Amino acid sequence: MGYQQCAGAGGWGTVRGTRPAGGWGETTQRLAEPAGLEARFTQAANVAGNVRGNVGGASSRIDPVLARAFVGAWAGLWVTTGPCQHFYRKEFGLAHMRDARLAHTVTQADAMLAPTSRGDTRDATHAGVDPACRDITRWLEAMAATGDRGWHFRAARDALSLVGNLSLLAIIAACFYQEGATVAGADDGGPDAGRGAAAANTPFGVPWADWTLLAFEGAKGVMTQSLGSPTLIRHHAVDEVLKRMDAGCRLLEACLMPPMPPSAVPSTWRSTLAALTRSRDVATLFTFANTAVPPARLGLWMPTWFASGASGTDGYRGLLRVAGLMLDSCRAVTSLLGTWARTTAFTVDAKDLTHRWESLCGRLAIVSADDQAMVLARVDRVTQLATHCDTPLLATIASQGALRERLLASSETLTVSDIAAACEAFNVPCHASCVDDHHYLSRDPAESPWGQRWKAGAWQCGGATPVRTSYRLLLLYQHWSAALLERVVSSCSATVSQATESSPHDRPDVPPGVTRTRSGVVHLDIESTRV
């Protein structure tokens, strides 16, 4: 199908083909209510179905054609998240390569798009609606759990960095205290009575001990760098998927007749989390400031290698060492706060999407037969928008009612030129992009992993390209240094998943003609259920 071809462009299909290391894995404590979510799913569909039966005298079941269309559109939105990535395209794919449980969700979504034969499959399809809804619930829970795994890596990194910095500062403070006591107890202050800030360079006064302290400081920096990649790739993947599913959910809600009311304004708690997430930007500022400290220290230290005796720059070098430790401590604290807020926001957003899908599922049961053809046509337009638009453009279309209605109400199949013309008519930025031979529309010019922009049909360098290239080299180093750690963690996760995976006897019975694979994907045997 179109989704499978689109998702396979540029090597993304190889990521989705990764064999999962286990089942869904453990659900985090903050999402420790899967049974409740599934129960609400079923209850919403049943209640809405009963309303339809009481009002119209029709069947209380969700129409199978509508169910198939909406579930397929949801799965299509999910699997097209990867192909429309820009600068962080490699990070998105790397997250699915190194996190088997994350790749498992894409494999299931892709399997749900497998084409089936046409025919009278009303009863058989309805039998698979509830399992498909439970699959979607699990996908969202898996995304929140992936965010938690990224938080664990970041918490370990910043905690290690903070403990190391505070230990070094405590050692230097003890040296200053001892130095001050020595100076105060001396009868007269000679040239060697006190070293001042230079004591921070050699707090022990023993060459091997001071060199050991310097080596520990360097090892801490290398370790914290290697622990940065696991969080970055996972949180980027979760953020992109949730943003795309939020935009897609708004588009699907607009497909119903009458349209569903607009989503509620974010709660105060969610707005607070969004504000706290900006602490990550403050941490980035501390990181930039601290980046200049080691070269400056080295520049002040090198002249002392060729001079005898104390140097006048030793005091400045000691001050820089203390300043670097304090800056890194501030970075660790603000990074912890911002990453925790972002992880919590992932959980809140996943739960919100689950509730919105429940409501959408309930509304499907009361769609009248007269509106069914129009609703199906609008769902097809959502499918075409997902195929041709990146996530920022899709979110912009979903948020602008007039533009959204024009595109969804189109009587013809939407093409790239049709979408671009509609965006231009409503003054919405829209750019044609091509990444790995995959053509799509983006709100901003596409950016390659090396910072080049797609303009006038070719990649072009800009003013920010050197900075983005330097950042790309840093990301490559972080990904490479974290490879061994990721492999160890993945092996442990696979062992735990296999040990905790439920047996086939523990799974609920399914009706004849409906089967579940070992991964839990719902498949319908059309021929065996034909009436």
Oligomer class: single chain
Q: For the terminal residues, how far apart are their CA atoms? A: 27 Å
- List low-pLDDT spans: 1-42, 44-60, 116-128, 189-193, 499-531
Strand-residue proportion: under 5%
The major beta sheet can be summarized as: 2 strands, antiparallel
Number of domains: 2
Jot down its keywords:
single chain, 531 residues, 2 domains, two-stranded antiparallel sheet, 65% helix, elongated, disordered N terminus
Task: Sum this structure up briefly.
The chain is mostly helical and 531 residues long.
Account of the 3D structure:
Residues 498-517 are annotated as: Disordered. The protein is mainly alpha-helical and 531 residues long. It has two domains: 60-114 and 128-180 and 193-390, no CATH class; 445-492 and 510-530, no CATH class. 65% of the residues lie in helices and 4% in strands. It is built from 20 helices and six strands. The chain has helices spanning 2-7, 12-16, 34-56, 64-79, 89-98, 100-112, 122-127, 129-185, 207-226, 229-253, 268-277, 279-291, 293-301, 314-364, 369-388, 391-399, 401-408, 416-425, 465-481, 483-500, and strands spanning 431-435, 438-442, 453-455, 458-460, 514-516, 522-524. The protein has a two-stranded antiparallel sheet. A hairpin with a 5-residue loop joins β5 and β6 (522-524). The longest helix has 57 residues, at 129-185. The chain starts with a helix and ends in a 7-residue tail after the last strand. Mean pLDDT is 77; it is low at 1-42, 44-60, 116-128, 189-193 and 499-531.
